[in-house]
Amino acid sequence: xxxxxxxxxxxxxxxxxxxxxxxxxxxxxxxxxxxxxxxxxxxxxxxxxxxxxxxxxxxxxxxxxxxxxxxxxxxxxxxxxxxxxxxxxxxxxxxxxxxxxxxxxxxxxxxxxxxxxxxxxxxxxxxxxxxxxxxxxxxxxxxxxxxxxxxxxxxxxxxxxxxxxxxxxxxxxxxxxxxxxxxxxxxxxxxxxxxxxxxxxxxxxxxxxxxxxxxxxxxxxxxxxxxxxxxxxxxxxxxxxxxxxxxxxxxxxxxxxxxxxxxxxxxxxxxxxxxxxxxxxxxxxxxxxxxxxxxxxxxxxxxxxxxxxxxxxxxxxxxxxxxxxxxxxxxxxxxxxxxxxxxxxxxxxxxxxxxxxxxxxxxxxxxxxxxxxxxxxxxxxxxxxxxxxxxxxxxxxxxxxxxxxxxxxxxxxxxxxxxxxxxxxxxxxxxxxxx
Length: 435
Prior knowledge:
It is found in: Cytoplasm. This protein is an alpha/beta fold. Helix content is 45%, strand content 11%. The strands form three sheets. Strands 3-4-5-6-8-10-11-12 form an eight-stranded parallel β-barrel, surrounded by five helices. A two-stranded antiparallel sheet has the order 1-2. α6 (160-179) packs parallel to α7 and α11 crosses α12 (349-376). It is globular, with a radius of gyration of 24 Å.
């Protein structure tokens, strides 16, 4: 028995590039083999529970526009209806994974004990749904930013009672993630930052945040959770100065508190843009340090300057992101989560399916282009040629030498380097051959 929300919408199938059906895949054939691996296993798609089912379509200037049968989300009956609809959509899409925040799953009860009880109840219900579905849990996380109790942060809050509430909340969410077989657990700051230094002890807050994350890692091992702990960089939203600004900032933070071997990064395209980076930059930084975990694949409106969480629709951007992912060896426990939401005017159930189908197609097309570039080897050849002089023994010796010795070499050998072309336009044209 179904909820009827998606009545008339058949499971999405691969129809090929000539298809004109917005609810059919043109590029995403989950069983197609790319670089010796199924496309589904490369991409590991996950549906975001919050934007797809919990978001009601409001914005800073207007109230909700979506009128779903499970809205308002204020009792367990509606929470279970939402889960029913969610799994119907997972089945339509053939989605291998989904992700959630605790507040997406259960209604806010006003107290920790009541919230925990409803979280445990809905976790059991989700477990039953998962037994009848192929969809697994990619990761769970705690919403520690929406309720007013979090207005000055969670682990960085000046009130120790809020720190305690946050610790208890994360424990409950880790227990739920573990029980559902989640492959990762994510922490992202939301409000782990500050508005003004006039009322902020920055050093204390960073130490508290580091200790909090250490507790999370300790608890992971205590309960035998085999998944990966991930943190998600997020700049200036909603706090003015976020402590987890970008990949490099988070890596430095993890090293400072001795967590670099325990925690990896969940990177979002929209957050990369807000931090002034490209998505492939953030991925490359994490991969270079062995800290690439998972990704949220969305995009921003480049005119708005805000995290608009739109579905991906630009193959060249996506291809360059997956190029870095494939170069690093691809996902292990991570995957491609659509942290994206419909526009407020996209009201129909069909819009929800079409948005995901379109996003999955763009990602598939981008990954195939990335794989083709890797197999062709043109970018790697150009990279090797640019750095070829560093293979010389004398060049390598400089890296273990000292300034005075290098100065003598420059004088004695009359070193007078001339600039060489970076060939950027040629390489950009090369990429365009594949996308």
